[in-house]
Amino acid sequence: MNQPPRHLLQIEGLHPPQIAAMLNVAESYVLLNRSGKTQRDLLRGRTLINLFFEDSTRTRTSFELAGKRLGADVINMSVSTSSVNKGETLLDTAATLNAMHCDLLVVRHDQSGAPALLAQKVDAAVINAGDGTHEHPTQALLDALTIRRRRGRLEGLVVAICGDILHSRVARSNIHLLTTMGSQVRVIGPPTLIPPEAERLGVTVFHDMQRGLEGADIVMALRLQKERMARGLVPSAREFFRFYGLDAAKLAWAKPDALVMHPGPMNRGVEIDSAVADDPAHSVIREQVEMGVAVRMAVLDLLSRRSRRND
User: Fold this and answer.
1) Interatomic CA distance for residues 155 and 87, integer angstroms
2) Contact assessment for residue 76 and residue 97, using Cβ atoms and an 8 Å cutoff
3) Consecutive sets of 10 residues in the chain, 311 residues long: mean pLDDT of each?
4) Residues pairing with 283 in the sheet
5) How distant is the alpha carbon of residue 189 from its chain centre?
6) Which residues contact 49 (CB under 8 A, 6 or more apart)?
7) How far apart are CA 309 and CA 239, in angstroms?
8) What is the per-residue pLDDT for 118?
9) Extended beta strands in the chain, E state
């Protein structure tokens, strides 16, 4: 990647060398974090604002930790107590943020396209931390890093993404990244939870878990997003688990050494069984959390390089 990107709004449109470069920088931060060292001078004097219009524990905390490990001044803006709840528009918020002269802006919003709109209106580098049902690019990057560290590659792997594909921005970002990097991606779920355009994204659609999981190297379970779901898409959580919840019996249809992933938070007993989620022989769910900090450090580093060059 000769020129660092200005913003990170989506995975769609990124090329393999760009993705590989991000993963390579993130790899260096995995090693740095495990050594107990930090680079607190890298973003010294820079301001990172976490602007979250939706609740998040993992993503916001890992961006906060990533910023602090690089030496940035980190501000978490609580939208529940901000002027947004008093009627301020997103563009008004953009103007306010611009007046604060922040350098990096991490945005999570329930409306698709909100981070892209802010990126047009602020001087800061904008990172999409999840927008509506559109994308969640850093989640896909951390998932890819987890897979690549365990399997040594992304090309040629069979990745099965299971569950609520329709409402999942994580699924969309992973589909774009994994297909771009040469993985064979399958999506598995009931017809009501598969988007009609799924096959146009280069994936194979399955409605039967056994057929979809056969020969899979990676099995990624997704959270059932009831907050975005119209009534009638799923009969009940119990029924969903019976047919699409990942348990030991269903996992046995995948390859014997298949990795189990989940972006969190997990609904145990709904999309994944506790025994599978906690199985050290297969589950890399905790490792995903660790990779999240390294990936977000890499993204903050790369996106701030332009402004550092101008200093």
Assistant:
1) 48
2) no
3) 80 96 96 87 95 90 96 85 62 87 94 94 96 97 98 98 96 98 97 93 97 98 75 75 96 98 94 97 97 98 77 55
4) 260
5) 20
6) 74, 75, 76, 77, 97, 100, 102, 104, 105, 106, 124
7) 55
8) 93
9) 47-52, 73-78, 104-109, 125-131, 158-162, 184-188, 204-206, 218-221, 259-261
Q: How far apart are CA 17 and CA 174, in angstroms?
A: 16
| pLDDT score recorded for residue 83 | 55
Q: How many CB atoms lie within 10 A of CB 175?
A: 25
**pLDDT at residue 234, as a whole number:** 73
- Do strands 158-162 and 184-188 pair parallel, antiparallel, or not at all (unpaired)? parallel
Say what the pLDDT of residue 1 is: 46
Q: Estimate the crossing angle of helix 16-35 against helix 169-180, to 10 degrees.
A: 110
Q: What are the DSSP calls for 225-252, one per residue?
A: -GGGPPTTSSS-HHHHHHHHSB-HHHHT
CB 136 within 8 A of CB 105: no
Q: Which residue do the tokens 């057929």 mark?
A: 211
Q: Which amino acid is at 96?
A: T
Residues found in the chain:
311
